[in-house]
Design a protein that fits this description.
The complex is a heterodimer of chains A (71) and B (176). Chain A is an alpha+beta fold. Chain A has 3 helices and 2 strands. Chain A has one domain (2-57). Chain B has 2 domains: 1-41, no CATH class; 47-175, Sandwich (Jelly Rolls), CATH 2.60.120. The chains are: A alpha+beta (71), B mainly beta (176). Chain A binds chain B through residues 3-8, 14, 24, 27-31, 58-60, 62, and chain B through 52, 54, 56-70, 75-77, 79, 105, 132.
Chain lengths: 71, 176
């Protein structure tokens, strides 16, 4: 995801690394959450989890639902 | 008689005129007199700054964060936080003792902002909280010298002993 950063040298574009994308999403950045929503949604099979993921991406809840691991 | 003024027939004595602050021409116009007259007619608070509408980033890298839970749905946030990160704004205010109101997001990695008005320290606001809290309003009493556009600098000089970093996360400021 490309973002704009405000620096002493002016506004510069920056491509977020996967780790930065995760951190931005955890910090509440909605566009970062939408990116992760698009990545994670295909892995969700539980409709309830899908709804929770959408609520998280919209900023309605702040705790990201976890995809259950293999049994 | 044609009425070019407020009174039909006009006034023959300046002392009988009323209107904007009862202009009796006690002295000719100058900037101080103009400020004193028109500032009192301003309906809105005079100094409002949205945090991403800065004049200059002095130190640090900031980013606009769209948020769902914060008033105005965003915060201006340090992408890579460090001690002494600093951003400068311009704000108009009349002289006097005013209140600076700050809307912020507090959390466990936030720093303590020192506010400088025209390079004079006005005090600090601590953005630390044990967990993330949206819509935190803080106020600070500031001394405004002169009726003009002022420089307002926010510098992340220190941090709470419990905080893990010097992160900034602010949304807007109001001077009233």
């Amino acid at each position: 995801m490309r973002v704009l950063l405000h620096t002493p040298a002016g506004i510069v574009e920056h491509e977020l690394t996967p780790a930065e994308l995760t951190q931005w999403a955890a910090d509440g950045h909605l566009e970062a959450r939408r990116e992760i929503l698009l990545q994670d949604m295909p892995q969700h099979t539980d409709p309830h989890l899908k709804i929770e993921l959408i609520m998280w991406a919209l900023g309605i809840i702040d705790t990201k639902p976890q995809i259950p691991g293999p049994p | 008689m044609t009425d070019f003024g407020r009174r039909v027939g006009g006034e023959t004595d300046h002392g009988a005129l009323d209107g904007l602050a009862d202009d009796d021409h006690a002295q000719y116009h100058n900037n101080a007199r103009g400020d004193a007259r028109y500032l009192q007619l301003a309906a809105a608070p005079l100094g409002i700054i949205f945090a991403d509408m800065y004049k200059a980033i002095i130190q640090g890298t900031y980013a606009y964060y769209a948020l769902g839970s914060q008033n105005y749905h965003y915060m201006f946030y340090t992408f890579t936080a460090a001690q002494n990160d600093e951003v400068e704004y311009e704000i108009f205010s009349p002289a006097g003792t005013k209140t600076l109101q700050l809307l912020a997001v507090t959390s466990s990695d936030r720093g303590i902002i020192t506010f400088y008005l025209d390079d004079v320290s006005q005090g600090t606001i601590d953005l630390y909280s044990a967990s993330i809290v949206y819509n935190v309003f803080n106020t600070l009493s500031v001394t405004v010298v002169g009726t003009k556009v002022h420089s307002l600098k926010l510098k992340m000089e220190t941090k709470n002993g419990s905080s893990s970093n010097y992160v900034t996360s602010i949304t807007f400021m109001r001077l009233y």
